[in-house]
Structure formats: structure tokens, C-alpha cells
Design a protein that fits this description.
alpha+beta; about 35% helix; 3 domains; Immunoglobulin-like; 15 strands
Length: about 350
């Protein structure tokens, strides 16, 4: 008996390992990417939609092709930030292989899996829709056909919020037609809470990367994790915005008893000029530079069209307020920020910030 066990043990182990490998493959999502004409070292950033567009992975590769694998929870909606700055929705389905094609110009495409194919079909059908009532009716039909679809939150965000700035009532009416499980997801909760309010720029900032003064490149989402953040967007060549940046010290002093973070972000495209400008001042906060300039994703997502501008972000990096007025930022901060729970906190003053 022992002889038989010893003889067949290696075969048994091999069968078990093969079964385990097959099981792993059934759980994996695999993406085959092709970027036409790409010959350099490149990076694709993978952002999670359910965790408010925080980065969950980085795909580094050289040349036209890459292969990336991920273990999803049945279906995981993702957003890819491509090397040229374009965005592509991606639905990672368990056990599915998909293909991403990025042409030199024109529309990107993902094929493979029910969700990716249905998203691509919707995108093609909606290509000529120019009015919000057209896209609203198209999404309504999509939800009616499949109220459980994992694709719907992305359609609402991409078309109703970012592209058409639809009325909150229209968004709410579409959400009500979704299944109960889909309505309970955190991202839909944000949409229901006014995330899509008209023309306010109340968006998440997705895939923004900044340089700090040591020239380290970091994700915007890591600047102040889980904490309110006040940013002044400025440029060294804009004197008015440079003065606005320095006035952040008034907020820092007045709200010393509140828990939040201050930062300034320059849109200088010349890093040396930016470094020389920030060297001239001693400030209490960290300075960053987005070398994309006016093409910055931060400016685009926040609908920023002129300098200076102050932006208040929630701990989830959602834009709460965008304003050129420090007085308005002062009032909103007072309403948004709870006092720190400590006995040595500064007694709140009876007057507003002076020196504005």
C-alpha cells in the first residue's frame, strides 16, 4: 500500500497544483493592451471607481503592448488614465480576458466581457447625442433593460455629470430605476447627495500627479488622505495668484484649532522657474507643481478657467467649493470643519479673518 502511495504521490500533487492554478485563472481578469505607435517607456494608472477614483495600481511597460491581471470581486469598475492623458472606463470581470486598443487618434476601445461590451455599445450609440434629454432617455432605456448593470454608475458620471452637467432631479430619477443593490453602492450614494449639481464642478479629481520641491512625483490623492484640503492654484507668472497663495497663511492662523491641510499647486510648466519662486517665501504648507499647465486634470475636473482660485476638497478628494474669494472660503471652512477634540484648542475668535 505504501508503495502505491509513494508512486502516485507526485501525480496527486501535480493534479492539486493544476487544479489550484485553474481556480486562480478563473478568478483573474486579464487585460491585453495595445497602444498604437508607442515606443517609449509608458505608464497607465488604474483608478478604482468605488473608492472614489483613488489609484489602485500602476501599469509600467515599454513599447506598444502590455498585459495586466487583477483579481476582481465579480465585477470591479475601473478608470484607466492613459499615457496621453485620455481616460478609459474598464470593467474587470472575474475569469474574463479583455483587449484595450488605443489608436494614435480617435476613440479608445475595450472589448471582452459583458460589461465592457455593453459599455462600448452604449458609447457608440450615444456618439451623436448632443442634448441632455437625448442622453437621459438613452440611459433610461439602458437601465430599464438591465437595472442590475454595473455599467450604469459610470454612464451617469461620464454623461450626466461630467459631459452634460445634468440637473440633480434628472440624475435622481434615473437612480430610482436602478436595482436596490446598485443604489446602495457608495458611488451612487455620492450622486444622490448632489454630486452632480449643475456647473458646480463638484467632481472627484482623477489621476492627477504632482511634483513636490524635491522633484518627487506623487498622486494628488496622497496629499492629504482622509482630511479636508484647501488648495490655492497659482502660477509664478501671475502676480495676483502669487499674492493669493501667500494669503493662505491667514487661514492657517485663524483655523489653527481645526483639522485640515493646506497646500498650493502651481501650474508652471517650467519647474526651475517654479522652484525659484517658492524659494523666496517661507510657508507652513507644502508646495506642489502640476507641469501640465492649463491642461492639468485638476483644472479640467474642477472647471477652473482663471487664476487665482481656492479649492476646498473633502477627505475623499471631492470638490466642495471652488472660489476666487478667500472670504467665501473662510465662511465655508467654518461650516465644514469640526473643532479638534482636545482641551488645549485655541478659543474661537469672535471676528472673521482680517487682512483680506
Amino acid at each position: 500500500m505504501k508503495r502505491y502511495i509513494v508512486r502516485f504521490l507526485p501525480i496527486l500533487i501535480l493534479l492539486l497544483l493544476s487544479a489550484a492554478a485553474c481556480n486562480r485563472n478563473r478568478n483573474l481578469f486579464v487585460l491585453h493592451g495595445t497602444l498604437s505607435g508607442n515606443s517609449s517607456e509608458s505608464v497607465v494608472y488604474v483608478l478604482g471607481i468605488d473608492n472614489r477614483f483613488d489609484r489602485i495600481d500602476t501599469i509600467s511597460f515599454t513599447g506598444e503592448r502590455f498585459v495586466w491581471s487583477f483579481t476582481p470581486d465579480t465585477v470591479t469598475p475601473l478608470l484607466l488614465i492613459l499615457p496621453d492623458g485620455r481616460e478609459q472606463a474598464l470593467f474587470a470581470e472575474k475569469g474574463i480576458e479583455a483587449s484595450l486598443f488605443v489608436p494614435d487618434s480617435g476613440e479608445t476601445m475595450v472589448q471582452g466581457g459583458y460589461c465592457n461590451d455593453s459599455y462600448q455599445a452604449f458609447k457608440s450609440a450615444a456618439a451623436n447625442d448632443t442634448a441632455v434629454n437625448q442622453i437621459c432617455a438613452r440611459i433610461d432605456s439602458f437601465i430599464t433593460a438591465d437595472p442590475f448593470s454595473e455599467v450604469t454608475p459610470m454612464l451617469l458620471y461620464e454623461y450626466m455629470v461630467k459631459k452634460h452637467h445634468a440637473k440633480q432631479l434628472d440624475i435622481d430619477n434615473l437612480i430610482k430605476k436602478m436595482s436596490g443593490n446598485m443604489q446602495d453602492c457608495p458611488f451612487i450614494g455620492d450622486l444622490k447627495s448632489g454630486f452632480g449639481a449643475e456647473l458646480t464642478g463638484n467632481y472627484y479629481v482623477s489621476g492627477t500627479f504632482l511634483n513636490d520641491t524635491t522633484m518627487q512625483r506623487i498622486s494628488f490623492s496622497s496629499v492629504a488622505e482622509n482630511e479636508h484640503l484647501v488648495v490655492c492654484v497659482w502660477a509664478s507668472w501671475n502676480e495676483k495668484s502669487d499674492e493669493a497663495r501667500k494669503k493662505l497663511s491667514l487661514l492657517s492662523e485663524y483655523y489653527a484649532d481645526r483639522k485640515f491641510t493646506i497646500a498650493d499647486i502651481s501650474i508652471d510648466t517650467n519647474l526651475e522657474r517654479w522652484k525659484e519662486a517658492v524659494k523666496k517665501d517661507t510657508v507652513e504648507w507644502v508646495s506642489y507643481c502640476d507641469t501640465e499647465g492649463w491642461n492639468s486634470r485638476l483644472l479640467r475636473d474642477g472647471l477652473v478657467e482663471e487664476l487665482p482660485v481656492y479649492i476646498l476638497f473633502s477627505g475623499l478628494k471631492r470638490i466642495i467649493l471652488k472660489t476666487g474669494s478667500l472670504e467665501e472660503m473662510d465662511v465655508r471652512l467654518d461650516a465644514e470643519l469640526p473643532l479638534k477634540e482636545r482641551t488645549d484648542r485655541i478659543t474661537p475668535r469672535k471676528y472673521r479673518i482680517t487682512g483680506l
